[in-house]
Design a protein that fits this description.
The structure holds 2 protein chains of 2 kinds. Chain A is built from 3 helices and 5 strands; from the N terminus they run αβααββββ. By secondary structure, chain A is an alpha+beta fold. Chain A starts with a helix and ends with a strand. Classes of the chains: A alpha+beta, B alpha+beta.
Chain lengths: ~110, ~625
């Protein structure tokens, strides 16, 4: 019992500690990167249970702000190989278990 | 309203349908035109009639390039603004490839014209265009370290990041803390500096010695190889060649009170600094110099009271016993980096009440504890034993004046003590030692009897400054005194064997380590005297001024145990190293047929022979 409690505690700690967004890779300019990151955080928080709609929201907003055509992948585990336009890629982790990859390719 | 010429029609006529069709034919052209055809020879109906009617015409201002007018214009414009067009054409080349191509075509009908005169286009105007920047595409995985994302990978990334953040925080915290420490505790900062210095200390030491080796190269050469050739023409006399001078900033105003060579490192010697002047007592210093580095002492220790005497332990060359003017004794351990002595006596642990004039290490006692003796003006001779971390003292003898003074008490019970100034222990007989006193007497004492003396020599009229057993002959010792004399004794005979009057107070005397008959003395007029009894029984072989300035008293002299050099200390804190010329260390000449013997036996025999010569007239005198 104790062990499970400890595990729970650990997990809570982990969630708490790892809630911040962590940019893993980005070649965007500073301003754009910050904006995109904030957008991703907002979308993921808004659609915490539905990655699909979060991705849709990010994609549509990005298309409006920075021109079409953006692509968004959100998930807890995936492999990928993409083609993107230079200076239009962001790959970040969020909430301890989510990865978000946003890139533009028209 | 009706017009006057309006037809009046009947109702039937009005109801009648009239069909009219619009055609493209010109209604004004007459129908059925015939022309005579000479071919047929008859009139023929013309079918093909032009139906076109022109209502308005206007000439355009555009001129085709190909026309004569166009060519004329193009020639004119190219001469006027040919360059402009050229430049434009060049800059906008990429943007208007099509136009330039046209222009090139235009050039073709103008072969006479220079080819560089490009014509922009057929209609003499330039269209500009540009494309916006287009980001190139790139195919790559954004995160090379992980082609396939997974939960544990995200976890690791987060952990790494957290660690990095924590480290950064620690660094930020650490910085101000360090600054505070430095501000508050300067001592700590100092110690830090010392630490960093000690890292380079060894290298610095080597460098220093190398520099000194260069600077004092000529002296080193003299020390090693120079033999005064003029000695051959001087007969018996010899000279002293000054070598290095040792001087230290902090000891300029202190007198050299003791010199001792290290028994293990033949180039190392210790010098004690203090003051002999009762009125001018101050701090003392203990310096250790090596011949390899005359410019700076190897070790230096400062003490509150003046150093009066010192002695190296023969088995532990790192232990140095020191006696102070305030009556304390201490032991310095050179292996320890501290500036304080490892052991020091105190008022509680039986220190002397007057200056300590001499200290001497003894053989280890039965429990293998190191021990040494000290003699002081208070008349006590104390044995100090190193037990664990303290000095244990034991009074060996008290030099009580009564009973030993020959005048005898004339009714007065004077509680006087003899005050010892120097002593020396017999080389072979452990218990036997000699004590020189301020009154000029020399006591022969035994460690076994604390209350009485084995013998008393009425040696001098003034204080005995130094006393020393001969290193070879077991019976012979030498003493010197402020009464201007140096005396050589046989401890079994109450009268001196040899007496030398040097004309002024003698500060120190020392036997040479290489010959039983050679000794050297320094007098307070700054002169060093070297004797060889084997060569001249009456006169010194060499008397030489060894101080640079007059009025500078020499205080101490010591022979190096190995090299033919002596060191002399004076009252100004200066140490001079001198080399003995060949005449001063001459060995007895080989006699016919005999092998040149060496060793202590020969030395003893040499001295014995001399003594036997003296004894008989001496004994006659006594009778």
């Amino acid at each position: 019992m104790e062990e499970t409690e400890e595990e729970k505690k650990d997990e809570a700690d982990y969630k708490r500690l790892h809630s911040f967004p962590l940019i893993r890779h980005s070649d965007m300019p500073e301003e754009m990167r910050v904006e995109t990151m904030e957008l991703c955080v907002t979308a993921c928080e808004k659609h915490a249970t539905n990655n699909e709609s979060a991705a849709k929201m990010i994609k549509e907003t990005m298309d409006k702000k920075f021109g079409s055509s953006w692509h968004v992948v959100i998930g807890e585990g995936f492999g990928f190989e993409i083609t993107h336009e230079v200076k239009n890629l962001l790959y970040m982790f969020f909430g301890g278990s989510l990865a978000v990859c946003v890139w533009k390719c028209s | 309203v009706r017009s006057p010429d309006q037809l009046e029609l009947t109702e039937d006529e009005l109801k009648k349908e009239i069909t009219r069709t619009l055609t493209a034919d010109n209604p004004h052209i007459p129908q059925g035109i015939v022309r005579f055809s000479f071919k047929e020879g008859a009139y023929q109906l013309v079918d093909d009639i032009d139906q076109t009617a022109i209502h308005f015409t206007l000439n355009g201002y555009l001129v085709p390039k190909d026309s004569d007018e166009g060519r004329r214009q193009s020639i004119r414009s190219s001469t006027e603004s040919g360059r402009f067009i050229e430049e434009e054409a060049q800059t906008a080349e990429a943007a208007e490839e099509a136009e330039t191509a046209e222009a090139e075509e235009v050039e073709e009908p103008l072969p006479t014209k220079a080819p560089e005169k490009k014509l922009a286009n057929q209609f003499n105007f330039i269209e500009r265009g540009s494309t916006t920047h287009h980001n190139p595409l790139r195919v790559r995985c954004p995160d090379k370290s992980c082609l396939c994302l997974s939960q544990w990978f995200i976890y690791d990334a987060y952990m790494e990041e957290l660690e990095r953040i924590e480290k950064a925080k620690e660094k930020e915290k650490a910085k101000p803390v360090v600054i505070k420490k430095e501000d508050k505790a300067t001592g700590r900062k100092l110690s830090y500096h010392v630490d960093t210095l000690s890292k380079v200390a060894k290298a610095a030491k080597i460098a220093e010695r190398m520099v000194n080796l260069n600077t004092f190269d000529d002296i080193a050469q003299d020390f090693k190889y120079f033999e005064d050739a003029s000695d051959e023409f001087r007969g018996q006399e010899g000279t002293l060649l000054p070598l290095w001078k040792f001087q230290y900033e902090k000891t300029k105003k202190l007198a050299v009170t003791a010199i001792s060579w290290n028994p293990k490192y033949k180039d190392l010697f210790a010098v004690g600094y203090g003051s002999y002047d009762f009125m001018k007592q101050g701090y003392g210093m203990l310096l250790l110099y090596t011949l390899k580095n005359p410019s700076f002492p190897e070790y230096s220790f400062t003490s509150e009271s003046g150093v009066m005497c010192l002695d190296f332990h023969s088995d532990h060359p790192n232990l140095l016993a020191v006696g102070f003017y305030d009556g304390n004794v201490a032991i310095y351990n050179l292996k320890k980096a501290s500036s304080q002595p490892s052991y020091k006596s105190s008022a509680k642990s039986g220190k002397h009440t007057e200056p300590v004039w001499q200290v001497k290490w003894q053989k280890d006692d039965m429990d293998n504890n190191s021990n040494f003796f000290s003699v002081s003006s208070d008349g006590r001779i104390v044995s100090w034993t190193l037990v664990k971390n303290e000095l244990v003292h034991m009074d060996v003898i008290k030099l009580s004046a009564d009973g030993t003074t020959m005048q005898g008490p004339e009714g007065l019970q004077l509680q006087t003590f003899g005050s010892g100034t120097s002593f020396d222990f017999h080389k072979k007989i452990d218990y036997l030692f000699l004590v020189g006193t301020e009154e000029g007497k020399i006591y022969k004492c035994s460690k076994n009897y604390s209350s009485q003396f084995l013998d008393v020599f009425e040696a001098h009229h003034m204080a005995v400054d130094s006393i020393s057993w001969n290193p070879f002959h077991l019976k012979v010792f030498i003493s010197c005194s402020s009464d201007w004399t140096v005396k050589i004794w046989d401890h079994t005979i109450k009268t001196p064997m040899f007496v030398y009057d040097l004309g002024t107070a003698v500060g120190d005397v020392a036997w040479s380590p290489y010959s039983s008959t050679v000794f050297a003395a320094v007098t307070i007029d700054g002169q060093a005297h070297v004797f060889d009894l084997n060569v001249n029984k009456l006169e010194p072989l060499c008397t030489q001024l060894v101080v640079t300035r007059k009025q500078n008293k020499t205080t101490h002299i010591q022979f190096n145990p190995v090299y033919p050099i002596i060191i002399v200390g004076d009252e100004q804190g200066l140490i001079v190293c001198l080399k003995l010329s060949p005449n001063l260390r001459k060995m007895p000449k080989e006699k016919k047929g005999q092998e040149a013997k060496k060793g202590p036996e020969v030395e003893i025999a040499k001295l014995e022979k001399l003594l036997s010569l003296v004894r008989e007239p001496g004994s006659k005198d006594e009778k």
